[in-house]
Automatic annotation (TrEMBL):
Listed transmembrane segments: 7-29, 68-90, 97-118, 138-158
Subcellular location as annotated: Membrane
Gene transcribed to yield this protein: Emp1
UniProt-recorded name of the protein: Epithelial membrane protein 1
Family: Belongs to the PMP-22/EMP/MP20 family.
PROSITE patterns assigned: PMP22_1, PMP22_2
The organism of origin for this protein: Hypocryptadius cinnamomeus
InterPro entries: PMP-22/EMP/MP20-like, PMP22/EMP/MP20/Claudin, PMP22_EMP_MP20
Predominant subcellular localization, coarse grouping: membrane
Length: 161
């Protein structure tokens, strides 16, 4: 049981780190141009230097929504990690980590909303580039989506023995 708890803890920490990286880095979409590689993230457009990401007025609300839900997912993931540590030392044997699992599933839902909106609105729309494709931050966000769901379900069924 201790090995299972340690494994879940390690995967949870890895998920938090990957969420930070995918939200902060600017490699959600990557494309080629005559000058070099262009990458865009949630915040900046980077060529050789990074500039503020300019979006049309109709896409601005979508981008702000993606930014907000990715930040919320980080917050909920960290809160779930703290709750897990608190419940690990305060729960009696045989009790379940219901609160930790519920908060982690809220994190999962935030990631789902953010990445789904980004996929629907911004995939393949990289300005001044040819052959746009997804960058590693987009892929990390989907990996965090899977990990947070698995961790949330494990917390809900996990008992402290």
């Amino acid at each position: 049981m201790l090995v299972l708890l340690a494994g879940i803890f390690v995967v949870h920490i890895a998920t938090v780190i990957m969420l930070f990286v995918s939200t902060i880095s600017n490699v959600w979409m990557v494309g080629s141009s005559g000058v070099g590689t262009i990458s865009t993230g949630l915040w900046l457009l980077c060529n050789k230097t990074c500039t503020q990401l300019s979006v049309s007025s109709q896409d601005e609300a979508s981008l702000k929504t993606v930014q907000a839900f990715m930040i919320l997912s980080i917050i909920f993931s960290v809160v779930a990690l703290v709750l897990f540590i608190i419940q690990l030392f305060t729960l009696e044997k045989g009790k379940r980590f219901y609160m930790t699992g519920a908060v982690m599933l809220v994190c999962w839902m935030c990631i789902l909303i953010a990445v789904s909106i980004y996929t629907a609105r911004f995939t393949g729309t990289l300005v001044y580039s040819t052959n746009p494709h997804h960058g590693y931050c987009f892929i990390l966000a989907w990996i965090c989506f899977c990990f947070s769901f698995i961790i949330g379900i494990l917390y809900l069924v996990l008992r402290k023995k």
